[in-house]
Predict the structure.
Amino acid sequence: MPDFHRSRSGGAPPAGEKAATVNAAQQTEAAPTRAGFSTVMVKARETGHGEHVPAPNAWLMALEFRAPWELWSVLPSWPALMRAPAGDGHPVIVFPGLSASDGSTLPLRGYLHNLGYDVSGWNQGYNFGPRAGILETAKRQVQDTCDAAGEAVSLIGWSLGGIYARELAKELPHCVRSVLTLGTPFAGSHKSTNAWRLYELTSGRDVTQEADNFDLPGAPPVPTTSVFSRTDGVVAWPASLQAPSKSNPHTENVEVYASHVGLGVNPAAWWVVADRLAQPPGQWKPFERSGTLQRWVFPDPQR
């Protein structure tokens, strides 16, 4: 991979920035307890290493077939979605997941455009991993967009696209206003997903070597929200948990009910994205699960 991520060889980052991990013997994939969540976060602070989290099982993978229904649910949810805070017009770039293109993020981008944001895709075709020139082009896009708009850009990444968003924010913190990721596996081992073989096939890169060489779990130095689902059939949900960061207190994990393939078209995930983007610079507050309906739609991530 090009010199894009912060290398671990340059010194280990603070323990508070490390990824959330989970002991497979103490966790179940479908219904973890509050104590189980605490175990995840304690290990994130104490070990700072991506202990192996088993990839989602066959049952969770089968649940990925609900993704079309998540897309169709946007229609009856549209009146409620349009009650989200209006956008302030600042630029937003959305990065697609592995083997996906800007077409996959078109519904989300259309929604954000309707709210008033200046939204664009990543404009590099299908995302087959960080092949030659991909990351450099993405970095130029963020810099050029920031320069043209005269203000910082918010970055949204779905799955692998979230890795790009997080690492771009580390490289260009002065150009990035906030980062939002959807089912992004930044905290677990490379085998915490059911897509690692596809990644190696499409990118031509050894995922183990890349995971060892770069500090993916470290929190970006800007407001960062990780949206995850415990019923994700591709990425083990603990692999998407951002551990508390000593250098950046403005990080959070927000849980929704969604499949991995459907996260980018899920109305609940869209609401979180819209709510987070609407925060004025310098006025970050954690996502609020206020009201009976919101507590039902957005479960307590620490349960």
Remarks:
- The domain at 8-297 is CATH 3.40.50.1820 (Rossmann fold).
- The beta strands are 91-95, 118-120, 153-158, 176-182, 224-228, 251-255.
- The chain has one domain: 8-297.
